[in-house]
Batch of 2 targets.
Target 1
Amino acid sequence: MRLYLYDSASRGKVPFEPADPGRVRIYTCGPTVYRYAHIGNLRTYLLTDLLVRTLRYLGYATFSVQNITDMGHMHQGQLELGEDRVIAAARAAGKSAREIAAFFTEAYFRDCRRMAFLPADVYPRASEHVPEMISLVDALEERGAVYGEGGYLYFDVTKAPGYGVFSGAGLGEGEPADRTGEAIHRHKKRPEDFTLWMPAEPGREFRWDSPWGPGWPGWHIECAAMSLKYLGSEFDIHVGGVDLRFPHHENSRAVVLTATGKRFAALWVHAAHLLVEGKKMSKSAGNEHTLDDLEKGPPGAGTGFSPADFRHYCLTLHYASPMNFTWDGLAAAARARIRLQAAFRRAALRETSGGNAAAALSAEFRGAISDDLNMPRALAIAHKAVRSGIGGDVVRSLAAEWDGVLAVGLLSESGAERERAGVGEGEAEEVPPAVEAMARERESRRRERDYPAADALREKIRAAGYDVVDAAEGTAVLRKIPGTRER
Ligand code: AMP
Ligand code: ZN
């Protein structure tokens, strides 16, 4: 079955055609690590996870890159303006910008694990790729697309082929294409031209030497340089929130097209925003919630919600539809998740039956996710499956297969699988995503009867302190090896 995705560049659903079917290459604009990710950010990163999981379900191997923007926002000027309380607080506690970035990078990875995101293959840090950014500016200079003075370098957008067509932002309509909010635009010829390099103000911790003096790179060149390094000038899919379409994606794209003459990403997938009472969730709007907030629950309620509940909540809506967050909506999604799990567990305990019905349901599920990642429809098929009278191992393997995409724990916790596998209560803790990924990989090697590869993976899983227990036909359960420490 063919995967169709909505491509924001051509503004239509297109059949997905990877350049190299053996390795679908994906780039996602990652977090700026100066604060905790809010659940709006996480909804956008969920899109990458659903995309990767769907591609794997359909039999593709994936190579996914997500950058970590660990500078830029940590700007002394903004700090002095009191723009960032988190940094201000951390500084007050005697922390450096690097420590702040390291802290929130870890916090972000923890959120990703809690959201059951498959880890990216590479998480390049912007601060570790400045030489690549400098070479890219060099390449742009050679093409006559750079001007500036006093240590400021700008990209001349009139030198980029078809600038503005991608986002529909047309020349002259744009906002000043810079994220720092500083009064540094005095040398710019037009509002869309954007900063490639800025001089470092005294006391700036993140600074690098360059042919243009000590300074630091602009935001758009960061993603351009990191995607070029890890994915090349032509890769398959670029992911981000819809607000990044302009200026960020228009500009990263302009950089790569101008420097290399190549296409850059073949397909652009954008996630719609998470809103609160019609307003985009953001730190500056003061309406943000984090996963920790969800776990605490609404003020005064006394009970909270798990990251899996939030994941389920997100799956009830298509990624391209704006989602209005409400506590009632989350509560309803949490109840629906529990009911769905219970129904799967009950069905799994019945006699094995319904092989043909399961094959048809499986095809429907595949059709739903192949239709631009239609998770609401995929969930509806899961509900339909438990009402269809199928039972036992048939249900178990459907659940395991579908949860490889949905990852909401269709047969989780006290479920039949754990009992069958003899995994005790205390051992049913969260398995690190990297271990889960190896287990899934081992499953597919095993299905292809590549036993040496499957065994090698099992050894790697064991080295990480886990073992796979082959529970029923085609299903495997991960169990922590007692007495080993998580790594
Ligand atoms: P930032 O850390 O601000 O660079 O944002 C990280 C990612 O989250 C980007 O892809 C944004 O487009 C996305 N994003 C920001 N706000 C929201 C929101 N309210 N809902 C969904 N995605 C968002
Ligand atoms: Zn980016």
Note: Residues 431-480 form one domain.
Target 2
Amino acid sequence: MAELSQQQKAYELFRRYEGNPILTPESWPYPVNAVFNPGAVKLNTEILLLVRVEDMRGFSHLTVARSADGLTDWEIDPAPTLEADQSSREEKWGLEDPRIIWLEEQKQFGITYTSFSEGGPVVSLAITKNFRTFARLGALLPPEDKDACLLPRRIKGRFALIHRPIVRGEAHMWISFSPDLKHWGDHRLLIPTRSAYWDCHRVGLACQPIETPQGWMLFYHGVRSTTAGQIYRVGLALLDLEEPWRVRRRSDEWVLGPREIYERIGDVGGVVFPTGAIVHKETNQLNLYYGAADSTVAVATANLSDCIDYIMSCPETEE
Ligand code: BMA
């Protein structure tokens, strides 16, 4: 019976916003095919989403959408905010799936995104103060790599990057370290795929890691391939605060999966793909922003304490 109640907790953790999807290609100020997988951050009093926008060639760029409550009345930049640098071979075919964190030391936002080079997808870093001008720091690691985010501060003197290389067709999450955000090493396997489970074929970081007294709360996506295609769902893990290569807990269940029509039908049906989260300190509410079916942007909310209670009741992982 204990197992049942754990599944009940996972099922009830998130509530979808009734106004979903909150952003669609129709809401865009210029013609686009799809808007999805946004990075999310609080900037002054506003919620800012850096949305992946797919154009009518099938290439992506990033555009800012702003809102006071993070749910309604979005103001969208009239033109692409951050586009591929055409003179760079590392950014040839577009920019995708940004994750944003506030870098304490730099006093700037760090944006990790997938840039499509001629040699495959790589993880790149840009920094900005205002989401109007950006400094590019280039590709961090060789392809094939995606789904990356930095931790917001140094851990024992080094920056940490969570990312997802693909090797031999396998897609596991790794963590790597750097003294200067440029040279990366000490690579460690963090969260591997899990045979037979919902996350058996691929895993990758979802939104930016969330710091809690219990550890870094990590939402990640897991993929199962089925006869009808792939299903992208979201699970939860907890990393040690000071030794983040140690995974303390991992959920057996997914906490968000395609259920609503806008998650099941679209360019790629059966996909919920969170890339940004906002924690509202006053209410302890966590808003998880996600791409739905690679077509629109949706949001689901949870109470941060409930997420912590849930992950603390998940099995401890063996080292
Ligand atoms: C992943 C990424 C995402 C996409 C997802 C589902 O590999 O490329 O951008 O949303 O697949 O198609």
Note: Residues 10-313 form a domain with the Tachylectin-2; Chain A fold (CATH 2.115.10.20).
